[in-house]
Write a structure and sequence with these properties.
Elements (H helix, E strand, L loop, with lengths): L2 H7 L4 H14 L2 H10 L4 E2 H7 L5 H13 L3 E6 L5 E6 L1 H35 L4
Antiparallel strand pairs: 1-3, 2-3
Helix pairs in contact: 3-5
Protein name: Transcriptional regulator
InterPro entries: HTH_HxlR (IPR002577), WH-like_DNA-bd_sf (IPR036388), WH_DNA-bd_sf (IPR036390)
Organism: Spongiactinospora rosea
Length: 130
């Protein structure tokens, strides 16, 4: 284990580490990040989310929303209209996370080309010679 990982984990018991990793895995998922970013600005309807998130299926969006609601990161509000109007809003906890997600996204945009170049160089060096 690297020194950096040792410093972080020496203060956390195994049960806490598993809980922390579970939360990080949940909020770092491809669709979770996108949904959290979209809902941070205020209430958003399901169809708005569906249209604004390219490539997500209705089922995956539904599962992602349910998981984020279960984790306390979004609130689902159903209005008694016909048809029913449903909105999703980020909670205070999610809005705090939003600032970190924006920073992480900016980092990925800045360093994405370098990561791709590094992968290409690594793969070239690791490829067997013909």
């Amino acid at each position: 284990m690297s020194q950096r990982n040792t410093d972080v984990t020496e203060h956390v018991d195994e049960g806490q580490a598993c809980a922390i990793l579970d939360v990080l895995n949940r909020v770092s998922g491809k669709w979770s990040i996108t949904v959290l970013i979209r809902t941070a600005g205020g209430p958003v309807r399901f169809t708005e989310l569906e249209r604004s998130i390219g490539g997500i299926s209705r089922r995956m969006l539904t599962l992602t929303l349910r998981n984020l609601e279960r984790d306390g990161l979004i609130v689902r509000t159903v209005y008694p209209t016909v048809p029913a109007k449903v909105e999703y809003t980020a909670t205070e906890m999610a809005r705090e996370l939003y600032d970190h997600l924006v920073g992480l996204t900016a980092w990925a945009e800045r360093h994405g080309p370098a990561v791709v170049a590094s992968r290409t160089a690594y793969d070239r060096a690791a490829a067997p010679s013909p």
